[in-house]
Write a structure and sequence with these properties.
By secondary structure, the protein is α+β, with helices and mostly antiparallel strands. It has a domain at 29-69 and 80-86: Potassium Channel Kv1.1, Chain A (2-Layer Sandwich), CATH 3.30.710. The protein has helices spanning 12-26, 45-51, 53-61, and strands at residues 32-36, 39-43, 67-68. It has a three-stranded mixed sheet. The chain is elongated and about 55 Å long. The model has no long low-confidence stretch (mean pLDDT 84). It is found in: Nucleus. This is BTB domain-containing protein.
C-alpha cells in the first residue's frame, strides 16, 4: 500500500468559515431559520450544531421548521448566529 500523504493548511478552516458565512448571507444551502423576537435569520444546521452545545441539543430534538430562540431580558444582537461563522 502506498504511504499516506498528509497536507495541512492553517488558513483552511478560516477560509471555510468565511465561505460558509457568505453562503448564509446569500441564503444558499440554509436549512434552518432562527427567529429572534420578530426577526428571521437563515442558517446552516451543521455550523450551528458544531459551534454551540445549545444548538446541537435543540437541533437534535427539533422537527423541521424555524427555530424560535427563547426571549431574553436584553435584546438579541442583529444576527444571533453571525459569530458562529467567524
Amino acid at each position: 500500500m502506498a504511504p499516506v500523504l498528509e497536507l495541512s493548511d492553517a488558513a483552511h478552516s478560516r477560509c471555510l468559515l468565511v465561505e460558509l458565512n457568505e453562503q448564509r448571507l446569500r441564503g444558499q444551502f440554509c436549512d434552518v431559520t432562527i427567529i429572534a423576537e420578530d426577526t428571521k435569520f437563515p442558517a446552516h444546521k451543521n455550523v450551528l450544531a458544531a459551534s454551540s452545545p445549545y444548538f446541537k441539543e435543540v437541533l437534535s430534538e427539533e422537527s423541521a421548521g424555524p427555530l424560535r430562540l427563547p426571549e431574553t431580558p436584553r435584546p438579541p444582537p442583529r444576527d444571533p448566529a453571525a459569530p458562529l461563522w467567524t
